[in-house]
Amino acid sequence: xxxxxxxxxxxxxxxxxxxxxxxxxxxxxxxxxxxxxxxxxxxxxxxxxxxxxxxxxxxxxxxxxxxxxxxxxxxxxxxxxxxxxxxxxxxxxxxxxxxxxxxxxxxxxxxxxxxxxxxxxxxxxxxxxxxxxxxxxxxxxxxxxxxxxxxxxxxxxxxxxxxxxxxxxxxxxxxxxxxxxxxxxxxxxxxxxxxxxxxxxxxxxxxxxxxxxxxxxxxxxxxxxxxxxxxxxxxxxxxxxxxxxxxxxxxxxxxxxxxxxxx
Length: 263
Description:
Structural class: mainly alpha
CATH architecture of the largest domain: Orthogonal Bundle
Number of domains: 2
Helix content: over 70%
Mean pLDDT: 82
């Protein structure tokens, strides 16, 4: 009886140690980052320091330009990502439910999924110009394929007996999608959304670096060219925080869905 009790009580302790280990690793990294440039071990001009980064963060966050750049980037990302979700979910379910559609669409989809979306940027600029539309299109392409590919993977794991039972009881195609296909593929859909967030966010930043006169990506390029490493890192940290937050939210939804499925 004692061994199982120790095993159960050890899990929270191990989780707590893992969390503290992460905190300690970050603190050690920040301490070395601050100390080594002061000692001249690394060149402060190219690496900055946490104390300088904090000062730059206060200045940047107090400027209206920062919030304007952030709003523009998030607008481009939100529209492109939202369109990808709205289009990819029904398309993934439709393609997954039709062997003929899957056979036709799978090869070009995999080719476009593997290829970086940025290689299409010059073509998109020719078609849509250098304004919002080209950046939104890049985000859409980068976000669309992870969602569809993961939905198709989820469709492959649906128990065929459930679909046959639905047909026996006269369920329509829409009812099959809403009661069998979508719930069964929800874990794969959430994984696809988490991947799409990362790809879409990186794509909009890269697009702004190449063709934009505003936005977070443009400022990162501008501060990099002028060697303002402290301000560059503030904008880069902004991207990291946004991406981590959105991925974490989707991860929590995955955990809740998994707990709901188990219960």
